[in-house]
Specification:
mainly alpha
Amino acid sequence: MSWLPLLLAIHVTLAVSLLAPSLLLPFVLQRGGAAEQPGGWLRVLMAMQSSGSLWIGAGLALTGAGLIVVLGTSLLAKPWLLVAIGLYAANLAVAAFISRPNLRRLLRLGSEGDADGWRRIARRQRYLAYAMATTVGVIGLLMSVKPELW
């Protein structure tokens, strides 16, 4: 039995779920009031945003190392993979240093009742989520097409 399909499926699932809160929370939070009574998906995304990231990141690193063991280290010399890893690292940096602090501010403004400030930050967060989702799409394209970049 080859471990590759299972390992790859777990790796991709963890990679997407590590970015999912930053991609989805700006759209799930509705008009600032959703933070007061968090429902099902909102509660899951907020838990992933706060405490789940460390465990998801550790699992992602382990499955990535497993993929390198199964596929060989020559895979690390492929330009499409290097570009995809670079884009993913940039996306993680944006999620950690821009998106998450703004989401915390958004939740705080929602509980304080500052509707204008909430709308301004929420709009910015949605545009940021669109950019991050586009980057995830480019990574998926690179992974599936495997173009010769140089």
